[in-house]
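Ligand-bound model needed. glutamic acid.
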Amino acid sequence: MDASLEMIYDEMLQRNGEQPEFQQAVREVMNSLEPILVSHPHYTDAAILERIVEPERQIMFRVAWQDDAGITRVNRGYRVEFNSALGPYKGGLRFHPTVNLSVIKFLGFEQIFKNALTGQQIGGAKGGSDFDPHGKSDAEIMRFCQAFMTELYRHIGPHTDVPAGDIGVGGREIGYLYGQYKRITNRFDAGVLTGKGINWGGSLARTEATGYGTVLFAQNMLATKGEVLEGKTVAISGAGNVAIYAVEKAQQLGAKVVTVSDSSGSIYDPEGIDVALLKDVKEVQRARISNYAQRRSSAEYRDGAKPWGVPAQIALPCATQNEVNAQDFAQMVKGGVELIAEGANMPLTHAAIEEAKAAKVLYAPGKAANAGGVATSALEMQQNDGQTQWTFAKVEEKLEQIMANIHDTCLEASEQAGQPGDYQVGANVAGFIKVANAMIDQGIM
Ligand code: GLU
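Prediction:
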């Protein structure tokens, strides 16, 4: 980075000490922007970079709730409303014990650029809590969601801030959160949350959208090399909503998916993951993935092991941030990986990304490859506005178009930035330009 960029970066570091994930996310974006800032000095004159790294609003609150034993528990809730230049704040809620301000800010910062890339009118935000849903009863989940929304409701609205799910927040949690919002406000504001149940304002294909979109993005990347997914072997990490539907779409398109994982270990199933069984284990039983191996003879459970290193041409990390370090990347290459598309947010460490680029492995960052989820959330908002519900096929067709557009936008921007084929540079540059132009139009704030 040049000297003036380093100064802005250092100021950001000083203001945000002890926030390693946020610093990492900012660094990845800033590294890409130098050529654009040199050729477009008005962004520097308008202090876009200094402003874009500072959230418009950060909300932290106490969430007190009672567990099944009647004991009062206290968690911390967050909502970081990062940037509203392109539309209402939009982004998910994460419930996970690792959640802290750094994690929420990195996710919110990424969301600005991701949402811009979708071409829809959505700003960037993220929220959540350090609440650990693991091992909690359904009643405890409900009471926690109600307590969380009792504070959050005053900050959100269909044209203000529209939360959705992320890790630990799925259809069940969105239901409880929505119920409490409705009870407090006495309003059926369908557009205040996305990821809703399909009988009360949800969009068909929203559940599938992030995983499907990641695979569609990978398909677009392969097409630039004259290749197709059919016949390829795919390694996937994670076993949540993103991973499950990445498995499903990859298999629909003729690939064989041989791995999934959770924080305890991984599954290697050389005959191909049985997606119906995986859904039963994760969505119905809410069990660990070791349960999958117990129920399928072709599958092997590898306790404590990541899924990488098995023979595969494609890797889709769909678990969590920084899950793939340089050693994991080396394992992937040993297995024959030629393409990585991120289904999770920031799953590759900085070192792993550098290695991938040096090895000429095709690499697409999450803010491009996993944008199908939030893009379909915006389609859900559109359906809520029009009081209508589109068919699964119609939503999926729009998702396909959006992913193809994001892919092409990234490639074009990578050329504009003088680094053709670098999806990371392309995603950062294209997202930045869109937001920066809107910020300039709207004046200093
Ligand atoms: N949490 C998802 C993401 O990382 C989806 C956000 C949304 O639908 O608003 O993009």
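DSSP finds 17 helices and twelve strands in the chain.
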